[in-house]
Amino acid sequence: MDVRRPVWLQRFQAPGAESLAGLFAMECLARSTVVSLIPIEALRLLGNAQSVSVLFLVVSFAGLAATLTVPWLVRKLARRWVYTLGALMLAGATLSMMAGSFPFLVLGLILRIGAVITMTVCLSLYILDHVSRTEYTRAEPIRLMYAGVAWMIGPTLGAWLADAVDIRAAYALSSVSALVCLAYFWRLRLRDTETLTVFQGRSPNPVRHFARFFRQPRLVFAWVAAVGRYVWWVMFFVYVPIYVVESGYSKILAGALISIGSGFLIFLPLFGRVVRRFGIRRILRVGFFVSGVLTAGASLLAGWPWLAIVVLLASTLAMVSLDAVANLPFMLLVRRGERTEMTTVYSTYRDCGEICAPAFFSVLLAFAALPAVFAATGALMLGLSLLSRTVHPRLGRSDPHGGDEMPARVPASS
């Protein structure tokens, strides 16, 4: 008798939106298990939030170097080997942190940020390979929803292991998760599309890629919006746990807050439908505005930690609505023949966020208390809400026949 596997299971065994979402979720579990522990461990070793900011700033330059190295690696190696290298770096990062000393923490952070950038760039290219253009607005919320489940479980589980067992148990779980992610990646047998992995005579000089990217206003806006979102999440993942611990609460509560805030990603399919109904511009304007008001409001409530925490959690819901848009402006507007080069340049939004956020916050914390970080981040979100007015109103909206509507030519001013 021929027994067929369930359709949903088959979707996870073949390259496609669901399997790539599952792969991303495994990576997120490896990262999220220790995400609330790293800034707290850095605070223990360094003594104050400003020094932690300087540490993250210095490490961020390693991330920028990693981003500029990815195109060279893709040219020299098959993309599958580049992704494998990233997964091994992610597993090695937490193994390094197990030593519990400052030098090994720095080494672990450098490996971690290099791994995240390498794996993210490769996964973005695989998505462009295996998901059709008309499915982007549906596939992206699914991918982030799966990631939301991982982020909902990981921080709390990691904080509980650190408190009930040992912090090294959380690090070990993170490493094992990275290796499971790598095994699943090889199980999928993802193909490398030749047109995307070869530059076909173009100069490999990354400076030319940057110049080409920043001559396209549509891509520039996509990058600026992505930087803004990333700065907010850097604030949330680094400074909220520090704020919780400095307010006298436990690591478990810090991890639980990260889990709850990240867990709102499970609502992404709902927000995805909203994006298709109202378009990308409206979601960006409203999402940035609400998150800006609430984040800035948390600074005014800093004397009442529980109220500030509740407001910050509410602001994560607004940020999740922005994550439903996520990389869609870039994916919908990038030219197919420039995907590898432009994806690499676009991915520098993480490095910019990683560098700009701790750089500015370290200066700010030299003159003000930690709640000033919330006020500054809120002001940035309000500015991005105004900037979002330049997005074309029909970008990302669905037409009456169920397809994704996008103007063939978006005015250069957008």
Quick take:
The chain has 414 residues and is mostly helical. The chain has a single domain, classed as Growth Hormone, Chain: A (Up-down Bundle). It has helices at 7-11, 17-32, 37-46, 49-76, 79-97, 102-130, 136-164, 167-188, 194-197, 206-213, 217-246, 251-263, 268-278, 280-300, 305-325, 328-333, 339-346, 348-365, 371-387.
SSE order: HHHHHHHHHHHHHHHHHHH
> Would you state the CATH class?
Mainly Alpha
**What's the name of the CATH homologous superfamily?**
MFS general substrate transporter like domains
Number of distinct helices: 19
Total number of β-strand segments? 0
Rg over CA atoms = 21 Å
Secondary structure class reads: mainly alpha
Architecture (CATH level 2) name: Up-down Bundle
Query: What percent strand?
Result: under 5%
* Uncertain parts: 1-9, 195-203, 399-414
Fraction of helical residues: over 70%
Q: Span between N and C termini?
A: 59 Å
Shape: globular
Question: Main beta sheet, described?
Answer: none
How many discrete domains? 1
Mean pLDDT: 80
- Looking at CATH, which topology would you report? Growth Hormone, Chain: A
